[in-house]
Design goal:
The structure holds two protein chains of two kinds. Chain A is α+β, with helices and mostly antiparallel strands. Helix content of chain A is 29%, strand content 30%. The model of chain A is unreliable at 99-115, 207-213 and 216-221 (pLDDT under 50). By secondary structure, chain B is α/β, with parallel strands linked by helices. Chain B has one domain: STAS domain (Transcription Regulator spoIIAA, 2-Layer Sandwich). Chain B contains four helices and six strands; from the N terminus they run ββαββαβαβα. In chain B, strands 1, 2, 3, 4, 5 and 6 form a six-stranded mixed beta sheet that branches. In chain B, α1 (25-37) runs parallel beside α2 (55-70). The chains are: A alpha+beta, B alpha/beta. Chain A binds chain B through residues 322-323, 343, 345-347, 390-392, 394, 411-416, 433-436, 439-440, 463, 467, 475, 513-514, and chain B through 21-22, 54-56, 58-60, 62-63, 66, 83, 89-93, 95-96.
């Protein structure tokens, strides 16, 4: 059954609606059967239902009553034309069944859009501004924009299209006066005209208007009155709002167009602001994630090791703000020193968790008289398995026998190690190159052996050290790193600090793009 | 970074220009994934315009190689400058890729 009502808003705007069905919720929510978008109306305010061929009203809100002809209603109350329902500060006039047939005279839904002039229009816009300010998410805002358009301009259907990051315009919110929301067809030509040129359009007769000539999408649904306005901000058109009705039901006027253009510009501002706020929120989530990754990373590093009779070890890790992924570890067990410097290709929590796995595997595998090449193969197999994300780890790691200074190391796709000694100054020990960990599941690793003489220092580092850049874009590079290691004091703690300081001085304020790790092992 | 494509005898030559690092590698990855999704399995990557590649860029290359294996395709690289080649060498990746000295040889390898 149908029912015609006129809603009188507290601010004076009038709006006529035709309801269809036998059970409708009246309320502020856009999902209600009869939407009264006003803050004084409850979300589920009352229920309209059909019984015995008549409409009945029932209150749904315990705290926000519905009055029928100024009397609070108890249970179900029967409605007759002429009744006035009071909900919040709005009134709903019951008008009866609509005049049947397609030749029904177009309703005059909004006085303000017609003759009442500037002040009423400003009132509406003011109200739109205030209403839009309450939306906190983009979908909420878009629904609210359509809701406002419906209450002010009373179209049969409406759609908001927004530009995607890829540049196309896609419908993001739709609304119908009757029936469930669903796709609303809009001609591509109209979209291009309005969003492309940033010009509003008022199409009184789709079949004759040259802007729509040949555009099937509107003609198939009959002659329609269409009004469309771009959502424009400083950067151009964000999208557009399109409202349409069968021409026999509602014909839009130039006044309606002006009003829609004004509402669209208010909406555009809010769409831009809400979109920016959502971007900022995403950024905060990302920053939070990076902070977690940083905490995981730092909590995994070993404590400084007191100098041993045979060896002293020190390391530093300067995390980059956004990247992360470096790891170092060392410990002495059974007269051997085990050590690792590694760099996970990746960033964020994923990389940090990978680092935790690498550290745990190294700790688990490297003990007793384990061969370094076997340790490498075991870690590699574990992380190469099901490695769809193509995360890989470059690592330089091994063991030194404390009594002899015999070092065995594996170079799993890592930067070459450096030995600093009295005899040679600085040089790279010869270690066979193996592929990074996690790439080839059954890779056969081979270790390299050399002896670290008493007084000599072995230095391992990550590519954050060599790839550090200054503001001019120059790279620190392996040569400068070798020079810095040669010139530094020999005590490991001083060596890593002074090399890190040289790199920082080179960067001269340029943002650090990658973690910088340095590990020094001095045989005493 | 900009990326351009050229088609040559059933092979697509992808030419990224600029730095392939943690900020730009996702763009290249999406581009290469798009080619794979379109069934383009013979791919040559032209490094002549690449100034620098980071480990994030290497991951993109690994993913390309893995798709190549999975789809029984062919992947070849050419035109690396010394520092880009050094990054491949440091990571031990030289053995994992067909790295050709010239464009013609890369095309030849990808057509094989």
């Amino acid at each position: 059954m149908t029912l015609r009502v006129r809603i009188e808003f507290a601010e004076g705007a009038l709006e006529e609606r035709v309801l269809e069905g036998d059970n409708l919720v009246v309320g502020r929510l856009s999902t209600a059967g009869l939407v009264i978008a006003h803050p004084s109306v409850s979300r589920h305010h009352a229920r309209l239902s059909v019984q015995d061929n008549a409409w009945w009203i029932q209150s749904l809100s315990a705290t926000n009553p519905t009055l029928l002809n100024d009397t609070a209603i108890g249970g179900l109350e029967r409605l007759v034309p002429g009744d006035v329902l009071k909900m919040g500060s709005c009134a709903v006039h019951v008008l009866g069944a609509p005049v049947p047939g397609p030749s029904a005279p177009p309703s005059a839904p909004v006085q303000a859009a017609g003759d009442e002039g500037q002040s009423a229009r400003l009132g509406i816009l003011n109200e739109v501004h205030r209403a839009l300010a309450t939306a906190i998410s983009l979908p909420q805002l878009l629904d609210l924009i359509l809701e406002r358009c419906f209450s002010v301009l009373a179209p049969e259907e409406g759609v908001v299209l927004l530009r995607t990051p890829a540049g196309s315009l896609e419908p993001v919110a739709t609304r119908r006066r009757i029936g469930p929301p669903g796709p609303v067809h809009v001609s591509r030509r109209l979209i291009d005209e309005v969003a492309g040129k940033g010009k509003p359009a008022l199409v009184m007769d789709a079949a004759l208007d040259e802007r729509l000539a040949g555009s099937e999408s509107i003609i198939v649904s009959g002659v329609r009155s269409v009004v469309a306005a771009p959502l424009i901000d400083g950067d151009g058109a964000l999208g557009l709002i399109v409202l349409s009705s069968r021409a026999g039901v509602r014909k839009f006027t130039e006044h309606d167009l002006d009003l829609l253009v004004s509402m669209a510009s208010a909406a555009a501002l809010r769409v831009r602001n809400v979109a920016l706020a959502e971007e900022a929120a995403e950024r905060r989530v990302l920053e939070h994630e990076l902070a977690i990754a940083h905490d995981i990373q730092m909590s995994m590093l070993p404590k400084p090791m007191p100098d041993q009779p045979a060896v002293s070890v020190a390391a530093t890790l300067k995390p980059a703000r956004s990247v992360g992924g470096d790891l170092y570890d060392y410990w002495v067990a059974d007269d051997r020193l085990w050590f690792i410097v590694a760099d996970v290709a990746g960033k964020g929590v994923g990389a940090a968790l990978y680092m935790a796995v690498v550290k745990a595997l190294f700790r688990a595998c490297a003990h007793g008289d384990a061969r370094v090449a076997d340790v490498a193969a075991r870690i590699n197999r574990e992380i190469a398995r099901d490695n769809d994300s193509m995360l890989f780890v470059t690592a330089m790691f091994g063991t030194m026998t404390l009594a002899t200074g015999d070092v065995t190391m594996v170079d799993a796709g890592h930067n070459p190690a450096v030995v600093r000694s009295q005899a040679t100054g600085v040089h790279h020990p010869v270690i066979p190159k193996s592929v990074a960990l996690g790439v080839v599941e059954d890779f056969v690793f081979s270790g390299g052996r050399f002896q670290l003489p008493p007084g000599a220092t072995l230095v391992l580092y990550t590519d954050g050290a060599t790839d550090a850049r200054n503001t001019a874009g120059d790279t620190f590079g392996a040569d400068r790193l070798m020079a810095a290691i040669r010139k530094a004091e020999t005590a490991p703690a001083s060596l890593v600090d002074s090399v890190a300081a040289v790199i920082q001085a080179f960067e001269s304020g340029a943002p650090q793009e990658d973690d910088i790790t340095l590990l020094a092992i001095k045989r005493r | 970074m900009t990326i351009s494509d050229a088609h040559e005898g059933g092979v697509i030559v992808v030419s990224p220009r600029g730095r392939v690092d943690s900020t730009t590698s996702a763009t290249l990855d999406r581009h290469l994934q798009g080619l794979a999704a379109a069934g383009q399995t013979r791919v040559v990557v032209d490094f002549t315009g690449v100034d620098y590649i980071s480990s994030a860029g290497l991951r993109v290359m690994l993913a390309l190689a893995k798709r190549g294996r999975d789809q029984k395709g062919r992947v070849a690289l050419f035109g690396m400058n010394d520092s880009v080649r050094q990054v491949f060498e440091l990571a031990g990746f030289v053995a994992l890729f067909t790295i050709a000295p010239t464009r013609d040889e890369a095309l030849h390898a990808a057509m094989a």
